[in-house]
Amino acid sequence: MKKLTHCRIVPKYIFNAGLLAVCLSASTAYAVKFSIQSDSFKDGQKIPVRYAGTEQQCGGGSGISPHVRWSNLPTGTASLAIFLTDPDGQKGTGTSHWVVYNIPPTIDQLNEGLEGQQEGSYTVGVNTMGHTAYRGLCAQPQENPHHYTLTVVATTIPPGELPAGLNREALLEKLKGRSLLGQSIVGLYR
Asked: What's the predicted TM-score (pTM) here?
């Protein structure tokens, strides 16, 4: 946590009590905010085709999940959950591309394609297609770019408490009253 030290003299005419030294002491601290980033794409920017589905109509990507990193978890974080959703998908009814949960707070990122992650350090949930996997991005060429929202949620749920096989809706239901804070970035893909 960073410390601030700042003093200034407030002129006498502002306060009847005379000159007043207003100081923020060295012990006054401000909290650094919970945040997420991705090496795969920047917030508000285009997502590369490699994260798209392998199908030709999706762009013929590699179908691998993007990198995501988080920092400054809220106090009391017991586990994390990740969602990658496309609210523009399925003709505006939304698509869930990726659900990951039971992530211990000792982990600070998931690598691209989940490569190099310790076996059993997270649970991959069920996507809109009914598969327990990452579903590559898919927006048709004739459509406007879709807005893919990558969200990390800090929770009070201990790792391993949530069962395997949860989809986005079921996980959101389990998180009610047990989420501390969530942060998102949005990428565009067509």
From this structure: 0.81
If asked whether residues 26 and 66 sit together in one domain, one would say no
Spatial distance between the Cα atoms of 131 and 59, rounded to a whole number of angstroms? 20
132 and 55 together in one domain: yes
pLDDT of residue 4: 40
| pLDDT < 50: residue spans in the chain | 1-30
Contacts by 119-125 with C-beta closer than 8 Å and gap 24+? 123/162, 123/164, 123/166, 124/98, 124/99, 124/100, 125/99, 125/100, 125/101, 125/165, 125/166, 125/167, 125/168, 125/170, 125/171
Domain tally, the chain: 2
Structure tokens at 95: 């698509």
